[in-house]
Give the backbone structure.
Amino acid sequence: MSETLIVAEHLRGAMRDVTGELVTAARLLGNPVAVAVIARDPSRLEVTYEGVDEIVGVPVEQAEFENDVYQHALEALIAERQPEVVLLGFTVNSMGYGPAVAAKLDLGFASDVHGLALDGEAVIATRSFYGGKVDAELEFPEGRPVLLLIRPTAFAPAPSGGSPSTSAFSVEVPSSRARHVDFREAAVGDVDITTADFLLSIGRGVGEQDAIPQFERLAEKLGAVLSVSRPLVDAGWMPNARQVGQSGKTVKPKVYLALGISGAVQHLAGMKTSGTIIAVNTDPEAAIFNVAHYGAVADLFDVADELEKLS
């Protein structure tokens, strides 16, 4: 079947954002899009995204994710439906079974994919190498199924809507070697920047550690959460919980105000899908301006002083 198959991710009865992002990625490939929902009761989970042609319910005994269950179910789905492309999120869950499925079934494979395109009938997947310093395009020729793990936030979530058909797929799953027992909240430090609607983010341009309290006060006045780029964490000035980027947190607030951040590839990867990006930097060639919706070539302290007067 000429289709793109997505495996939905859900947690505690709710779809995770990455599922909608996978739908957006899938539509770039031009094939019909089917979303497989592997769950105890698939019908209780909403898959209301524009661009989905079919929802495939896969009932299993397990209420939450177990890697052996998903691996067996996906292998059966691929054998039955013969999709051209399979898309999973590049997440802890999918890493637990996606690569194993690709290796076992001899599929084309790439992880941490943040760009998709077609070149004729070939699938072109873009991913980064050398710590994010180099992007490469991987070509997967027609005729061999491909399994790709898509980086979260690399694509905007598909909007709600659509009227997909529904079907059921029965699969007998052997006992899982790893079992879900309970949830425990992971420590996120003094704040969870991934949930903030407004981030005021500062970088190397602040110059010295003594300047940080000024921006902490400004963030509080503006109703924002303070975040930082990697150099401030490496210097020991701020905790890792505040870091935006590939080695920190991936964020997508409604507003991202970047002061004194040049825009290294690793940083951009962690925030470029934010709703509105406003950048302030004295360097007109700073890479941050390539993703910013609004930018000012100015001294960040002058801008901060003006914002203080307005707040």
Q: What stands out?
A: Residues 67-81 form the longest helix (15 residues). The chain has two domains: 4-168, 193-310. The radius of gyration is 21 Å. The chain has eight helices and 16 strands.
